[in-house]
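Request: When convenient, would you put together a sequence paired with its structure tokens?
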Amino acid sequence: MGIEEVKAKFAIESPAQVIDILGLMGDSSDNIPGCPGVGEKTAQKLVAEFGSIENLLDHTDRLKGALKTKVEANRKQIEFSKFLATIKTDVPIALEMDKLVREEADEDSLRRIFEELEFRTLINRVLKKNGAGSGILSSAGRNEYAGRNIGTDSNRKNGFAEGNIFSETGNSEFAQQGNNLSGRGGNESQQQGSNFFARGNSEFAQQESNLSARGGNESAQEGNNLSLKGKNDPTKGRSDRLAKGSGGSAKGKDGELSLSLFPEEEEAVQGDLFANFAGNGAGVPKKTSLSTLKTINTDYQLVDTEEKRKRIIQKLLTSKILSLDTETTGTEPMEAELVGMSFSIAENEAFYVPVPPDRKEAAKIVAQFRPVFENEDSLKIGQNIKYDMIVLQNYGAELKGRLFDTMIAHYVLQPELRHGMDYLAEIYLHYKTISIEELIGPKGKHQRSMRDLDPQDVYLYACEDADVTLKLKNVLEKELKANDAETLFYDIEMPLVPVLVHIERNGVLLDTEALKQSSAHFTAEMQRIEQEIYEMAGESFNIASPKQVGEVLFDKLQIVEKAKKTKTGQYVTSEEVLESLRHKHPVVEKILEHRGLKKLLGTYIDALPQLINPRTGRVHTSFNQTVTATGRLSSSNPNLQNIPIRDENGKEIRKAFIPDEGCLFFSADYSQIELRIMAHLSKDKEMIDAFLSNHDIHAATAAKIYKTDLKEVDADMRRKAKTANFGIIYGISVFGLADRLGIERKEAKTLIDGYFETYPEVKAYMDESIQVAREQGYVETIFHRKRFLPDINSRNAIVRGYAERNAINAPIQGSAADIIKVAMTRIYNRFLAEGFRPK
């Protein structure tokens, strides 16, 4: 664009007047505020009349009406806006104009940089545009492994399970604030503190030195191999290896890392892309290009005869470590058929054992390897090893001995990054794995299965899985030690894996007849509510249409003066918006009730019977260890954690889950565990005393806030105190508390002030947690589960506030998650020791 084009675009006499135009109209992309109420046309008229902002401000008496008021009221802002829009031309820079001539890019160097930084979009946008290729893999390398099929194995190894990484169950209103783990700094969070976790039992208040024996130092020395096999949601997992299992994080090209960057921020923490956080591979020497199977020497063998199998079994039995992987026909372990098994006991050496489609014949081959699987002296290494354990148990073999899951290891180190094997291989090993799509083709109806391929076409891919997993283990075990994460990994996360395997394989029985009755009941109830809505609205409309709902609520009924709209001008009628308008008109509550019933029908009542496994007659959910940022387990396929627990509709669904004949359901839960942890971390005497005295913590809080006797606390006072107890530790604001309780903001402020007056050390803990996070960039739980907070020093108040809330509540929710995992493992082991058969 030349001078004349600029003049025409802005309707000005000189390009120098662009800064006057921008100073008046503003520019949101460059954070230039301009003058409120002055747009482009008005700015052009003013510049045409006065020539410059300075002349305009000297002659505001010539303006009239509202425009005069706007300009005079924003004089300083207009001057500042012009300053922001002005490019300094007097900076002393020595330039050699000849060196500014554009040259052709060094495409080879550029490709290496783009590949190392995973700038895949730029590769296609820049290099492809110049005819330099069409992606990360060169055309020469694209067909090297053509014909090798990898079946449905990829996403399970890269595994991103359904749901948002921040979305969790229980107290979701607060949990979604993104729970950060934060220690007090020093060793305070590790001390025994007050023994109130189990009503005076100090077992859980201690640092859990006896959580589960590590087997001496062998596990740290022999190296446990981590391998990401996550099974969930193939569309979100690695595009080349189908997710394998229920770990929630699979082995490959998981979704792109999403970064929220704010240009105005200059702090180092903003540069998350290159930040050297624990477990991100930053300590590993960088190479300028990635190795591939073509560039390294390997000994990968196809073991497809009886003689070869016997020889390999003897070799595997001599090793103290065993990296393994299963190739299957699907991502659901209870439905998948075994296609083959791969093993590695030394780097760059691996073996692939195919099995036939006939299940009985396949089981015979698996049985040959049982001595290998059941060797308790060898460390079993896998990528989402839970998936492999379930598949192998379905074929009669059980993994025994210590376990090392590379996916979980990286999750412990970096909970909010990807944990797929392909990603980890690039970051830690600087190695690019074979893409599953090179074997079975792109996703879609024409994509083939592993079963469709000849073992000769599969074995290199399968061997690579086991080999890369072993290599990752050798790197990640050192990272665990360097980052004080061994206790969390070896004593909490890994002992839980066999427990989850048992739970998932058992599944749960459904009373399908009860669900049919519930479906009829809920459908009739929905129809009744529909009629009530039509009567209240005065017309019939499509309740499922957000557009029509918005028109009825905001155009016809006009329940608010100014309704929120989308960019396209449509009214926003999301659940969050309608919840805030619940008290504006009775029809809103009915619409929410209708939506709730429809969701329960579609998600559970009508859907659950379709998920019954035809072979077992049960529903088998997956419990994911590597999805949530706080350390909590998540449930998927189906998600059984979000079934309402307290209302009648939720109870109607839950009664359809039934135990086996002659069995009972066993339910175990902690009482107010997160508040107990807050008392432990803050060491607040008043809160600790309330727990040790076995008082109702919410009633006790209400009594202190309202300065009344405990016996005088009524239901409303207790309700408000309960909301304060949970809300405040999750960073709820005065506005949020007022909205949640339906009270005035003044009363909400009094409630919060009274809370901190009652529990002063809680406020001190919250402030200290934020300060610790600012200083070290992360917070941690009692067991050192870290949550990194790159936005804790952001200049953007909204972003910073979110990180601060995480700094406060992550240690609480994360510690609760850790303790629950310990309890699950102990209960399971106790059942086995007592001779029970837990189902």
